[in-house]
Task: structure prediction
Amino acid sequence: MYTCPYCKIRVGGASEKCPLCQSRLFGDGEEPHFPTVENLKIRSFLYRLQMFIVLCAVIVGLGLDFLFHLEIPAFPGLHWSLILAMWLLVSEFLIVRKFRPGTGSARKVTLMAWVILGMLLITAHFFNFMWLAWDWILPIALGGMMLADFVLMILDRQGNAMAYLLSGLISGVIPCILRFFMDDRMPILWTICAIIAVILLVGAAVFKGRAVAGELRKRFNV
Result:
């Protein structure tokens, strides 16, 4: 155990300075009282490293676009660096949300899917493939998101079935209804997406009926 020659106290652990006078301790040290969290340090370093790389990519893209006027041949006049910066910075936001404590899995999946789909629609608008994103990519992504929410509902052990039920409702049924009234027609993929939404809502009621009923009674005071 270390000893402070000035304060005449004995200090345990691996500290090399006196906690009172900050003088150097003498003697033989001990094992640290508290374990070091090397894994957290490594994860923190890797997270900061990838954040630095992302910010460098954003700066380089903006410089090549606005200072050197580097353009995409098929899209002259398009500031592609802004779209690149949008994808990179929003990806950073999603990474932070993913590791944020206290956020349910259903909320993470739904938020991530909606943010990515929003960026995809913006990108499709500027790169002229909106028809592909609107009629193909969007319904496929919504169907996959609803299936993921349903699996999370089945695996849930904390009584959060209502969160998954609402995620399926908002993510599937409402976009399908809006799609129908906006164009007065339902392409095959949107029709499949609507069918999946209704089936999964029924499945949620069947497999988690009591939990869903309890959440409804609690939320609507019935």
Q: What stands out?
A: Residues 38-67 form the longest helix (30 residues). The longest strand covers residues 2-3. The mean pLDDT is 80. Helices lie at 38-67, 80-98, 105-127, 130-155, 161-183, 188-207, 209-220.
